[in-house]
Amino acid sequence: MQNPTAYRNVDRIIDGTPASDGRGVKLYRVLGQPSLMELDPFLLLDEFRSDKASDYIGGFPDHPHRGFQTVTYMLAGRMRHKDNQGHEGVLEPGGIQWMNAGRGIVHSEMPEQEAGLLHGFQLWVNLPAAEKMSQPFYSEFGRDEIPVEEKNGSEIRVIAGAIENGVAGPVTGIAGNPLYLDVHLQAEAAFEQDITSGHNAMLYLYEGSADLESSPETLQIAKGQLATFHREGDAVRLTAGNSGCRFLLLACAVLEEPVARYGPFVMNTESEIRQAIRDYSSGKF
Ligand code: FE
Predict the structure, then answer these.
(1) What b/e sequence results for 130-153 when a residue is b if at least 16 CB atoms lie within 10 Å of its CB, and e otherwise?
(2) Cα–ligand 1 centroid distance for 282 (angstroms)
(3) Are 184 and 226 in the same domain?
(4) Dist. CA 187 → ligand 1 center (Å)
(5) Domain boundary residue among 145, 169, 184?
(6) Domain interval for residue 222
(7) What pTM does this model have?
(8) In this structure, is residue 270 part of a structural domain?
(9) Which of 27, 64, 112, 198 has the most CB atoms around its CB within 10 Å?
(10) Per-residue pLDDT reduced to its tens digit, 40-98
């Protein structure tokens, strides 16, 4: 007889906090804020969601990154991306951009619209020390390139990693073998996903409500909350509330390395941060 699945217990459920970044872009900071600064290797998760142009039109003009990856996933609206190494493109609704900043890039991320809903997420994923000074690269896929599994009206979009039936996301070859799912569940539908041993997992619910399997009791999560899970256990499980739910499920191998963080630079030591600032100000990105 096989052992029953050991579900991971919920560690914490936290609320995000309203924040502003770039040129006055109003956003909701889920991770990377006082309640939870990081969940190794995740450094930040922002949700931007507004149909008021004044909340987003300033965008994110030229700014640098070094030492980690920025992952942008759009649900509605369009974002034009342009860097100092000749890479330019528009991220369309349903599209993902996994950007390895590595040793350094300078880029802008600007809304490509003057009205209408802009809704999406940006995730920062730390790089292992050995890859912090790697060549920058992009992994970009449009809506049609992201597999959607449908079952009883529920949908799972597989951006990175794989689900139970072997369907895998187009983003591959990333340090830590991340899992990135966007899951839409009908009312009271159940969902279960294996999490690789040694990976951290978190779930951000951006619509509806759900009950998370946990011991000694299930825990309710509401719209705008992030749940983090203990590292012990093989899978996470939840049941959607009576109006259904939508959430991102993210997991990745932990680094367990020192983190030195200064704005858009995330290195292992303070001296590497000082070097990043010097390199950026002397135009070496
Ligand atoms: Fe950026």
Answers:
(1) ebbbbebeebbbeeeebeeeeeee
(2) 19
(3) yes
(4) 36
(5) 145
(6) 149-254
(7) 0.97
(8) no
(9) 27
(10) 999 999 999 999 999 999 999 999 999 999 999 999 999 999 999 999 999 999 999 99
